Amino acid sequence: MMIAIITLHKINNWLILSFQLGLLLLNEAKGEVVQVTKTYMLSTCRHISNLFLIW
Length: 55
Known about the structure:
Elements: H1 2-54
C-alpha cells in the first residue's frame, strides 16, 4: 500500500514538472513567434517604404 502511494506521488510530481516544462517551452515558442513576426513586419515596412522612395 505504501509503495502505491509513493508511486502515485512520484507520478504526480513528474506530471507537475512536465506540465511546467511544457508551459515554459510554450512561452519560449511564443516569444520566438513574436520576435519573428516583429522582424518580418519591420522588413516588410522597410521594403514598402523603399518601393515608395524608388517610385
